[in-house]
């Protein structure tokens, strides 16, 4: 497979740091900034400099933007989307609700109202990790071809499907979209417990599954439909849904709740050992995800009527999850650095 050719729009402190890491990792890089002088140092290191954002898009397989705010993103989004090749996928980092809206408007203006940014894949619900990653890119955490820095929510990526087209064996490509599950109930239950009345207690312990079923519906619609048809015909596999956080947190609930209710085609469940043992002992295997979808929709509607915003809950969980993983990774790197320093000293 040929190496990816990358494009980066926005050369502030963050964008420049990403560009330097990509060059260090050996990627062929094209950059663009509205103030041309900011590209000089990167040009001296071997990066090509585009004259305009649309010119950059025409040269590369992956476009990464690192911009300071929605206004800056809006300024380049239309030209980027208009220049992108058919079949292009678009993604956003955490905080990507604004990213998704900006790219969505640009896509609609470009005549692609049926396509949605990847950051909107789950309708704003739950966390998403999309692979593969770009080696050498480590501002805090990694996702689908971009680094996530805790101080910015305006890093986005636009990925052409040319990568799958160049693959000698596209049927061997595999990726997942990771979704938090039990944590949703933990967070929602806390809010329900503060409410009075009879409606709130009735929703305890069921919203995570309802939310997961809504995500699975979106997944099936996206990958079973015309948008993915061309890639499917070339042997590219769907990006499967991966259920994470599936151990039961509340002892009042079934110890296999987040296993039995999340069984369906093209899914992965990362079971904790205790949950796996429980399921092997007394779990039931049944194709449950496509069942009772109307019930799940009513439950989510009832939650909204009580004033609880499921999108806000899941956005908070996503941000907290990314921070937790990033902090753990940083601690690992610090420990390795300390060990290396100690070995050198000896």
**Share of residues in helices:** 40-55%
Shape type: globular
- Return the CATH topology of the largest domain: Rossmann fold
Strand-pairing-aware structural class: alpha/beta
So, the CATH homologous superfamily of the largest domain? NAD(P)-binding Rossmann-like Domain
Number of domains: 2
Describe this structure in words.
With 346 residues, this protein is an alpha/beta fold. It folds into 2 domains: 5-166, Rossmann fold (3-Layer(aba) Sandwich); 171-308, TIM Barrel (Alpha-Beta Barrel). The protein contains 14 helices and 11 strands. It has helices at 13-24, 40-44, 53-57, 70-83, 96-109, 162-166, 182-193, 199-202, 207-224, 229-233, 257-260, 273-282, 293-305, 310-345; strands spanning 5-9, 28-32, 48-49, 62-66, 89-92, 141-142, 147-148, 155-159, 176-180, 240-244, 267-269. It has a 6-stranded mixed β-sheet with strand order 3-2-1-4-8-5, sandwiched between helices. The longest helix is centred in the C-terminal third of the chain and has 36 residues, at 310-345. The two termini are 43 Å apart.
How would you summarize what this structure contains?
By secondary structure, this protein is α/β, with parallel strands linked by helices. 45% of the residues lie in helices and 12% in strands. The protein folds into two domains: 5-166, Rossmann fold, CATH 3.40.50.720; 171-308, Aldolase class I (TIM Barrel, Alpha-Beta Barrel), CATH 3.20.20.
Describe the protein's topology.
Layout: E1 5-9, H1 13-24, E2 28-32, H2 40-44, E3 48-49, H3 53-57, E4 62-66, H4 70-83, E5 89-92, H5 96-109, E6 141-142, E7 147-148, E8 155-159, H6 162-166, E9 176-180, H7 182-193, H8 199-202, H9 207-224, H10 229-233, E10 240-244, H11 257-260, E11 267-269, H12 273-282, H13 293-305, H14 310-345
Parallel strand pairs: 1-2, 1-4, 2-3, 9-10, 10-11
Antiparallel strand pairs: 4-8, 5-8, 6-7
Helix pairs in contact: 4-5, 7-9, 7-14, 9-13
């Amino acid at each position: 497979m040929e190496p990816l050719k990358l494009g980066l729009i926005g050369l502030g402190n963050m964008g420049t740091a990403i560009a330097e890491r990509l060059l260090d990792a050996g990627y062929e890089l094209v950059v663009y900034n509205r103030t041309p002088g900011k590209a000089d140092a990167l040009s001296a290191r071997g990066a090509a400099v585009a004259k305009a954002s649309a010119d950059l898009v025409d040269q590369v397989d992956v476009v990464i933007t690192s911009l300071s705010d929605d206004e800056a993103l809006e300024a380049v989004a239309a030209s980027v989307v208009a220049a992108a090749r058919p079949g292009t996928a678009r993604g956003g980092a955490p905080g990507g609700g604004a990213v998704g809206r900006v790219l969505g408007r640009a896509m609609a203006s470009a005549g692609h109202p049926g396509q949605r940014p990847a950051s909107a894949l789950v309708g704003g619900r739950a966390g998403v990790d999309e692979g593969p990653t770009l080696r050498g890119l480590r501002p805090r955490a990694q996702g689908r071809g971009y680094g996530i820095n805790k101080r910015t929510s305006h890093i986005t990526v636009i990925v052409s499907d040319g990568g799958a087209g160049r693959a000698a064996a596209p049927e061997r490509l595999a990726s997942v979209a990771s979704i938090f599950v039990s944590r949703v109930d933990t967070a929602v239950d806390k809010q329900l417990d503060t409410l009075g009345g009879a409606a709130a207690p009735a929703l305890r312990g069921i919203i995570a599954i309802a939310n997961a079923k809504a995500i699975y519906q979106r997944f099936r619609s996206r990958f079973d439909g015309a948008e993915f048809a061309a890639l499917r015909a070339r042997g590219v596999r769907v990006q499967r849904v991966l259920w994470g956080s599936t151990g039961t947190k509340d002892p009042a609930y079934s110890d296999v709740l987040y296993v039995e209710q999340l069984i369906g085609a093209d899914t992965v469940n990362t079971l904790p050992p205790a949950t796996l043992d429980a399921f092997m002992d007394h779990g039931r295997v049944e194709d449950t995800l496509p069942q009772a979808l109307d019930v799940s929709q009513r439950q989510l509607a009832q939650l909204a009527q009580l004033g609880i915003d499921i999108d806000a809950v899941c956005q908070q969980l996503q941000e907290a999850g990314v921070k937790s993983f990033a902090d753990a990774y940083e601690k690992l790197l610090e420990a390795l650095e300390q060990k290396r320093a100690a070995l050198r000293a000896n």
